[in-house]
Amino acid sequence: MHCLVRAPDEDTARKRLRHALERYQLWCEHYAARIRPLVGDLGAPGLGLDRRTFEQAARTVDVVIHNGAAVNLAYTYEQLKAVNVGGTAEILRLAASHRTVPVNYVSTVGVFPVFPADGQLPGRVLPEHPTGNGALLRHGYAQTKWVAEELVATAGKRGLPVTVFRPTRISGDSFTGVCQTSDFLWLLVKGCVQAGMAPSDYTSDFDLVPVEYVSAAISVLSADPSATDRIYHLSSERRLSFAWIVTRLRDLGYRLDDVPLESWHRHIEQDAGNAAFPLLDLLPQKGLTTSATTRPGSPVFDSRTTRHALRTKGVTCAPIDASLFDRYVRSFVRDGFLPPPHSLVIH
To answer: What is the value of pTM for the model shown?
Structure first.
């Protein structure tokens, strides 16, 4: 298994890989002999590889799983273009240089604008549903992923075997509870905990999928030739409201006062050290009033195609229920991401 790693040398690259696997409780010595780090840079021409290494990879790699990206919702398209768009173009060039190496591209359901030009998205968004006008996307990350998907689709039309995976919001491991901490939702949760308040009129909801389901689905389907040249949604089709999340936090012992979104905004604006401070431009300034009856409902990203493809593979999606959500919170407390409430018992 070859893994592109941004590092000055191979020894540092190996340490970075090991550190990442240890962080998520995944490291075992068996990996050391199976993973070969390729010292490079996804945002550089030729993936930052010297010509000989690039050519060797192009001639010998059997399949590509492209999950690398720069993820920052506060960055512009131009700031993310080199890695997210240019890197995808270089991956496709490598795959098509000498053979037709299958490329499995991990995208996002965020390539669909929330408010398309022709109205709201349908209640259920199928994988084959047109993504619409990318210019309507709200932030640079989604815009770069939209453009990268277009590149992948064009490569597919020209004969390269390509498969696209669109996960919703990837949550932690359902067994250990270990979770990454840079996601919008978890930063918002931490910001509310730090402030001791939550916006009572913030009406967003979230479709969470455990990371081990996402990784297993991609691994299994990328190894199945019959699954090639398709788009798969990796979703739970169950949306958790922000109000439900706040209730769970309170049940675990966190004190969160209900305040209007406008007041919450003003409070967070005064504290640049709050975890939610970088998210302010991504959140509405005010909550919905009772007269706002035309707000489009959140779409459900249909994953029936994915479930059908996995029906004999033994890969299923664990539901994000109260028990699993609590496991995530306990993991955040153990890692120091969240402070412990008085009533939370850590095991």
So the answer is: 0.93
